[in-house]
Amino acid sequence: MGAVIRARGICTSYRTGFGLRNISFEIEEGSFVCITGPNGGGKSTLAKVLNGLVSLTGGTLEVCGLDVNDENNLDGVRRQLGLVFQNPDNQIVSVVVKEDVAFGPCNIGLEPEEVAKRTSEALSLVGMSEYASSPVTALSGGQKQLVSLAGILAFRPRIMVLDEITSMIDPVERRKILSILKDLVKNHGITVLFITHRFEECLAADRLLYIEDGVLVADGRPEDVLRSVIKASDRREENA
Q1: Which pTM does this prediction carry?
Q2: Start-to-end CA span in the chain (Å)
Q3: Is the pLDDT of residue 231 over 70?
Q4: What is the mean pLDDT of residues 66-75?
Q5: H or E stretch covering 97
Q6: CA proximity to 46, closest of 11, 18, 95
Q7: Measured between alpha carbons, how far is 16 from 146 in angstroms, rounded to an integer?
Q8: Are 161 and 80 in contact (CB under 8 A)?
Q9: Taking Cα atoms as reference points, which of 129, 119, 125 lies closest to residue 188?
């Protein structure tokens, strides 16, 4: 299918120090990739970089063939790559479920019939059709995350980047979200980048990127990456 993301030596910096440091990778279209690592290691920074919310200080980044460093491309990048944050309350903007999902398509000027079609399809994909007319405040945390997912799906993106979206919900809802993401990849061809600190969730992916101190430490099959990370941690403890 080809790569939909190409990162070459990307770097970011903050007043407090370095963010990402010389990270390179490619993401194939239609793949399910997990990104993990310690808190503060750069996972969320990478998510924001991919969406153009954090600027690069070095390297090159292309999303669906668009140079993310070029501000003129950012609107196009954000239509191709949807970003879902950890706390759904920070992303939901309407009182009623279907109105929230329709908000994005309305804002890009689609006709009402097309907005309604996309809203219905997106809610169906995440199993929330029966809640279309429900108030958002009546939903559980997991259901709110599904509404956030639907809101991004209504744009019909090629890529979805999900930043710790299971960290605030219970195990049953986490499993449901992972199942939906697998379906989006397998049956709808959407590329998923799933950021998580839970090692058990990483095993659901085709590939795992491990980021620590702003550096891409390991990249490969989830089982192999986790095994190498655990061994390295054990060696550090022995030498401490």
Answers
A1: 0.91
A2: 46
A3: yes
A4: 95
A5: helix 97-107
A6: 11
A7: 35
A8: no
A9: 125
Residue 57, C-beta contacts closer than 8 angstroms, at least 6 positions apart: 11, 12, 13
| Mean pLDDT along residues 49-78 | 95
User: Would you say 118 and 104 are in contact if contact means Cβ atoms under 8 Å apart?
Assistant: no
What does the DSSP assignment read for 191-219? EEEEE-S-HHHHTTSSEEEEEETTEEEEE
Torsion from C-alpha of 199, 204, 205, 210, nearest 10 degrees? 0
Kindly state the tokens that stand for 181.
Answer: 């993401």
Contacts of 225 (CB under 8 A, 6+ apart): 202, 208, 209, 210, 218, 219
Residue with tokens 């804002």: 107
Count the Cβ atoms, other than its own, within 10 Å of residue 213: 14
Task: Mention every residue, 6+ apart, whose C-beta is less than 8 A from residue 130.
Answer: none
Q: How far apart are CA 72 and CA 222, in angstroms?
A: 36
In the predicted structure, residue 15 carries a pLDDT above the cut 80: no
- In contact, 97 and 131? CB cutoff 8 Å: yes
Q: Give the three-class secondary structure for 80.
A: helix
Q: At what angle do helices 97-107 and 141-153 cross, to 10 degrees?
A: 30
Nearest in space to 157 (alpha carbons), one of 82, 76, 69: 82
Going by pLDDT thresholds of 50, 70 and 90, the confidence category of residue 133 is very high
